[in-house]
Amino acid sequence: MAAALPLALYIHWPFCVSKCPYCDFNSHVREQVDQARWRAALLADLRHEASLTAGRTLGSIFFGGGTPSLMQPATVAALIEAASRHWALADGIEITMEANPNSAEAARFADVAAAGVNRLSLGLQALDDEALRFLGRAHDVREGRTALDAAQRAVDRVSIDLIYARPDQGAADWAAELAQALSFGTEHLSLYQLTIEPGTRFETDVRRGAMTPADPDHAASLYELTQAMTEAAGRPAYEVSNHAAPGAESRHNLAYWRYADYAGIGPGAHGRRGALATTRHKKPENWLAALDRNGHGLQEERPLPPQERAGEALMMGLRLAEGVDLTDIAERTGIAQDALVDRMAVDRLAAHGLLAREGQRLAVTPQGMLLLDGILGEIVAV
């Protein structure tokens, strides 16, 4: 049952030095940030959410953003200490911080590790200086490698992010870049195809004809190349875009994909608390104002009907190589197993090798992952 799964905690730091042209996350550029005020505000938001989830065990903490490595290490330490007071911490709790490879942030890795962070997720994004300039990144390859070395010295668990299927990126170029990334020895890699998100500068460039995205067929061939290379290197895909050595999967992200409860604090953070969906105010100033008024940054607590919860559990869980247990989803949501998926569609897609069915466990095959969105649209019945 969902209540038996450990709770995950997400803490959003909304500030960045600059806005990347591909990014549609809730990130903001401000000339100055009052660190003391933000520390107090995050602690207050955390305290409120903890009061509503008393008695739960915390399985993971994730500092995301924005650029949370811009937080003062003292703030990181205060939040981890507060979480340990509000909840029981699972043995070997995973505490992750997203970080950029800029020199000033890399200099803090040892300090945030001392504060309790035991996993760093490093946004390298590319291993080519021209590509980094195209992506609007503030670091070069040399700086990225230095930051990676610092991360691997600071903590035992390191993940790196790379963006591929960039315009004019050939298969040989990506194969060489990915081989280099795999040689770094990190236990986890998040490998994302470049997508053109609404409201980003890249969307404007595409609309104006100033940029041409990768051809979908070419992007698909790069995806297949990625799966083959990571599998051969002992870093197989356990989710559409995430690869790890066995046992090194991101426990925090697995909580999302396995549809466990998670508390989200900070501007724009989302959460799932039982049958409620929670949303915080998105703009930093509005979130602070809500805290001043109410003692928390909540904008909405919305009841989730059983059908919506079942649909979310299917949509998230089928991203995973392990797939979903239909019996478990039925028990957690009260929706009958027969009503969860279109059985005829499942049988048809399984016959084409796109789905695998074993008892009540359903999974999308590696071949099917290329067509995931279409498959979900066909089989999810709730």
What would you say this structure looks like, in words?
The protein has 382 residues and is α/β, with parallel strands linked by helices. It has 2 domains: 2-257, TIM Barrel, CATH 3.20.20.70; 306-379, Orthogonal Bundle (Arc Repressor Mutant, subunit A), CATH 1.10.10. Helix content is 42%, strand content 22%. The protein is built from 17 helices and 15 strands. It has helices spanning 35-51, 73-86, 103-106, 109-115, 129-134, 141-154, 171-182, 201-208, 216-232, 251-257, 284-294, 306-317, 326-333, 337-340, 343-351, 366-369, 372-379; strands spanning 7-13, 57-65, 88-99, 119-125, 157-164, 188-193, 237-239, 242-244, 262-265, 270-273, 276-280, 298-303, 324-325, 355-358, 361-364. A 9-stranded mixed sheet has the order 7-8-6-5-4-3-2-1-9, with helices on both faces. Helix 2 runs parallel beside helix 4 and helix 12 (306-317) runs antiparallel to helix 13. The two termini are 20 Å apart.
According to CATH, what is the topology of the largest domain?
TIM Barrel
Query: From the alpha-carbon coordinates, what is the Rg to the nearest angstrom?
Result: 21 Å
Structural class: alpha/beta
Number of domains: 2
Q: What layout of secondary structure does this protein have?
A:
Blueprint: E1 7-13, H1 35-51, E2 57-65, H2 73-86, E3 88-99, H3 103-106, H4 109-115, E4 119-125, H5 129-134, H6 141-154, E5 157-164, H7 171-182, E6 188-193, H8 201-208, H9 216-232, E7 237-239, E8 242-244, H10 251-257, E9 262-265, E10 270-273, E11 276-280, H11 284-294, E12 298-303, H12 306-317, E13 324-325, H13 326-333, H14 337-340, H15 343-351, E14 355-358, E15 361-364, H16 366-369, H17 372-379
Parallel strand pairs: 1-2, 1-9, 2-3, 3-4, 4-5, 5-6
Antiparallel strand pairs: 6-8, 7-8, 10-11, 11-12, 13-15, 14-15
Helix pairs in contact: 1-2, 2-4, 7-9, 12-13
